[in-house]
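Handout, page 2. Input:
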Amino acid sequence: MTGGGTVSEATFVAFDFETTGLYPARNRIVEFGAVRFRVGSETATFSELADPGSPIPEDAARVSGITTQMVAGKATVEEVLPRFVEFLGDAILIAHNAEFDMGFLRAELERASLPTVSNTVIDTVRLAQRAFPGKKSYALQNLVEQLGMPQNTAHRALDDARQCMRLFERCVDAMSFMGDLELSEVLT
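Output:
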């Protein structure tokens, strides 16, 4: 879906990954989390741990709480990817610092010899900068706190995806004082 229509008519998927590190070319996804929604209504979730095929480094485990033992025997990243892409469908994708998550998704799809996704993507960092200018930090957990949103378990994929969905909705609320927004108004 592209920029036609209004925000209230669109289907979105907010998503997040937990990874073994910061570099898509050499690190792997260990947890997939996503929330399918229309503004004001969560309709489905996706949450799966994946075995990256190598031990999870201690520093990555410290951030997410996901250990090598937790992913032992789980589906491989290559096995989870088709289910995740099917869940995304043709929805507009939303991620906080979308370049990071999209970089991992593209790298994993390429490693698995699967086609890349062509969905429209909205970055809630950029959207929050427009909706709430002048914040000291646009990190997801800082925005959650600053905007008085309910807090979840930070650095777990489904919880962060749900926070991203809530942040998107909060941005839309802040930007829609004149009624429903055109999709083109939230595309970053």
